[in-house]
UniProtKB/TrEMBL annotation:
Domain Ras-GAP residue range list: 135-351
GO cellular component: cell cortex
Alphabetized SMART domains for the sequence: RasGAP
Organism superkingdom: Eukaryota
Lineage: Eukaryota, Fungi, Dikarya, Basidiomycota, Agaricomycotina
UniProt entry tagged with the keyword Heme: no
Protein name (Swiss-Prot/TrEMBL): Rho gtpase activation protein
A molecular function (GO) term: GTPase activator activity
Key words of the record: Coiled coil
Example GO biological process: negative regulation of Ras protein signal transduction
Record field: transmembrane: none
Coiled coil spans: 9-36
Annotated organism of origin: Phaffia rhodozyma
Xref: InterPro entries: RasGAP_C, RasGAP_CS, RasGAP_dom, Rho_GTPase_activation_prot
């Protein structure tokens, strides 16, 4: 414990301390940004469903206003609306929730799917929001153990375990999106996926129907007519029986297996890089399964572990790498399909494969058969991690002694958590004297949620009304672990000597280190902190000698050796801290990029909503809901002015990543340009032009709702016959060029 304290001593300002401070700051930024991204992802999910109703013209004006309010920007001013007494009461409540995870674990099982997201935000990114702090991480994992145990207890059949979309499964998925999980995905999968998507034209489609359709389209394009005896619209069976289709699929199958093998090897070789928490959850799944179903075969247990590790962690990043910022932009059509097939193969490998819906995947069964033992070994090794209970006990002691626990939490997080707890208090705390019930009684009824703009953050200090004195905890620790008072005195003395050497390193230039001289020089230094430490450590040396733990005649040899070893450890630690910082710099950039991506999606929703409301008001001759006309009277909106056209070259669109695929020959691209205009809100005209020609080669009318519908359905391509454009980037361009100008 005292060794840990020496490593992070705030009073020391050497190179290690500066590197550690930078690492701590970086981890805090990642934790904070992860929370912001989670909130944005939740907003995007909500707006996905609401925008769908708008597109279908099924939303009333008051509902449109409600959605608009959901999009209003938050006020970043951290003014607190709570008096000191209420802040103290909330501090007591959230200390109890953090320190005793069983309450949140029980609550997660009681609330509905509609309620889970905001609770997960509070739990994963606020209550246990410091994703790199061992105490919070271990408490969060303790909560997971309780949730999983209850899930196994209530399960009626093995086949349904952890597979349904429940609050528990949502919790597990959300956990993987925290900083350590994102760091792992970036370091392990990014290079492999980027290497694959460089081959834009590599087509490994093995669905016979799709292969057949692509084949006859290619023949038609080459010969100018549809080939005889190869009609369109055939069944899956007829396509699969075609010898030419079989000839195309055979080498593609071999190539797919080779690519999937390379992905699998990369994942298996990364075993030691998998975050501890994810491995520990895998361990709990295995342990709980063995206890609940002692007769279940090992491969069935591995299937459950694989369901979590691959289905909820690895595969989503493979299928949509752009959403995890593993690649720049949306992969082209063929690589995207290849990634989907690889994810299916990995899932079939980790689970018992079923080919009922996709019979063509049976051709890849050799990959499953040849790697089954290999993947089961990996999944079992994932579970081979130690427990943290002893470390958690020490963490709790350190926390009680520091007394500086704080969380940054919004008003609505406070109010919603309080409301959920009150709804289920009889189940959570049936006893009248239960601490949870007493904390909630002191707070009274939960206030209603505040509007988004007023949802300010509170810096909440956490402490317990029923706090055990630190001395009592130390006594308990000593009795539990056979740690003596002499042991603690020895470790504290060593810690102070390490701090002194880090503060005045030239005193340790001569070896062996003269500890008595070091203490004397510190005690007579000009710096007040050094003087205090020097005097204290001299007294501690004297006490240790009286206790016959050390001997001044051999220059305190045992302490000399331990201090020297600690300095070597700290030197190695600096290298590790610098390396970890470099790795987390990349993670922080990735999370920031993802934040920008999510914000751009919200901007597109804002633009669409504004257009819908403006158009609706124009049709009815009224001012949009929530907008006051000049003089307080509704006036017919003036005729909207057409905007554009604006001109963009083929090279511009390529540089911005707007063009995903182009069939325009390289020697003609310099003569190609695009004209984009907006005749009215929400409508656009894109023209593809060739220099020197008056008329466009191709023109397309676009509606903003059509583009948003494509985005909702994960259809990333806008086909202009000669070029294919990225829907998301087209939306961003239209928003920038037209919507904001209106």
């Amino acid at each position: 414990m005292y060794s840990m304290a020496a490593e992070v001593d705030m009073e020391v300002t050497d190179d290690l301390a500066r590197a550690q401070k930078r690492l701590r700051d970086l981890k805090a930024k990642i934790s904070s940004q992860s929370k912001k991204n989670f909130v944005l992802e939740r907003d995007v999910r909500y707006l996905d469903s609401r925008i769908a109703l708008l597109i279908q013209n099924r939303m009333a004006a008051d509902e449109q206003q409600q959605v608009q309010e959901h999009l209003d920007d938050e006020d970043d001013n951290d003014v607190q609306h709570l008096d000191d007494k209420r802040l103290t009461a909330y501090g007591n409540l959230f200390f109890l929730l953090q320190a005793e995870p069983r309450h949140i674990a029980s609550l997660c099982r009681l609330i509905s799917m509609a309620e889970i997201d905001i609770l997960l935000q509070t739990v994963m990114f606020t209550l246990y929001g410091n994703q790199y702090e061992s105490r919070e991480e271990h408490l969060l994992l303790t909560m997971f153990q309780s949730v999983l145990s209850a899930q196994f207890e209530t399960s009626t059949e093995f086949g349904s375990l952890l597979r349904a979309n429940t609050p528990v499964s949502r919790m597990m998925t959300t956990y993987t999106r925290r900083g350590p999980g994102q760091s792992y995905l970036k370091s392990v999968l990014s290079e492999r996926i980027n290497s694959l998507i460089e081959h834009r034209d590599l087509n490994v489609e093995i669905n016979p129907l799709k292969v057949y359709e692509q084949m006859i389209s290619q023949i038609e394009e080459d010969n100018g007519s549809l080939p005889e005896g190869l009609p369109r619209g055939v069944s899956q069976e007829i396509a699969a029986a075609n010898p030419d289709v079989q000839g195309i699929i055979r080498p593609r199958t071999a190539m797919l297996i080779e690519i999937a093998d390379s992905f699998l090897s990369t994942i298996i070789d990364s075993l030691d890089m998998v975050p501890y928490g994810i491995r520990w959850i895998c361990k709990q799944i295995r342990s709980l399964t063995r206890r609940k179903y002692p007769d279940v075969m090992d491969f069935s247990i591995c299937s459950l572990i694989g369901g979590f590790f691959f289905l909820r962690f690895i595969n989503p990043a493979i299928v949509t790498p752009q959403a995890y910022m593993l690649v720049d932009g949306v992969p082209a059509k063929h690589p995207r399909r290849t990634l989907t097939l690889i994810a299916k193969m990995l899932q079939n490998l980790a689970n018992k494969p079923s080919y009922a819906k996709e019979a063509y995947m049976m051709t890849l069964n050799p990959f499953v058969e040849s790697n089954k033992a290999r993947i089961n070994k990996f999944l079992n090794e994932l579970c081979d991690v130690g427990d943290f209970y002893e470390n958690l006990e020490m963490d709790q002691y350190l926390t009680m002694s520091k007394k500086d626990l704080r969380i940054n939490i919004t008003l609505n997080e406070l109010y919603v958590t309080q409301d959920y707890l009150l709804k289920h208090i009889d189940t959570l705390a049936p006893s009248d004297n239960a601490h949870l019930r007493l904390c909630l009684a002191e707070l009274g009824p939960a206030p209603p949620q505040v509007p988004r703009k007023e949802n300010r953050a509170v810096d909440l200090a956490l402490f317990s009304r029923w706090e055990t004195p630190v001395q009592d905890i130390a006594t308990q620790l000593m009795s539990d672990s056979n740690v003596t008072k002499n042991d603690i005195l020895f470790q504290e003395t060593k810690s102070i000597f390490v701090q002194l050497i880090r503060s005045i390193p030239h005193l340790a230039d001569r070896r062996p280190i003269n500890l008595a001289s070091l203490a004397d020089k510190a005690a007579t230094a000009k710096d007040g902190q050094l003087v205090r430490k020097g005097i204290k450590v001299k007294e501690m040396l004297r006490e240790l000698e009286e206790l016959k733990v050390l001997d001044s005649k051999d220059n305190y040899r045992i302490m000399q050796e331990e201090v020297s070893a600690e300095l070597v450890h700290l030197g190695n630690m600096k290298e590790k801290v610098v390396a970890e910082s470099a790795s987390l710099d990349a993670v922080y950039k990735t999370i920031g990029d993802h934040n920008n991506y999510l914000r751009s999606q919200l901007e597109q929703y804002k633009s669409y909503l504004q257009n819908v409301r403006a158009t609706s008001a124009k049709d009815k001759g009224t001012t949009p809901v929530g907008v006051t006309a000049v003089g307080g009277k509704d006036k017919r909106a003036p005729k909207t002015q057409a905007l554009g056209p604006y001109r963009f070259t083929h090279a511009q669109f390529e540089k911005e990543g707007i063009i995903l695929d182009s069939n325009v020959p390289d020697n003609r691209r310099a003569n190609i340009y695009f004209n984009i205009a907006s005749p009215s809100p929400g409508t656009f005209l894109i023209g593809l032009h060739y220099k020197g020609r008056d008329k466009a080669i191709l023109e397309m009318d676009l509606g903003l709702d059509d583009l948003l519908e494509k985005q909702r359905e994960n259809n990333h391509f806008l086909d202009l016959e000669y070029v294919q454009l990225d829907v998301t980037k087209v939306l961003a361009l239209l928003n920038k060029m037209f919507v904001k100008r209106r």
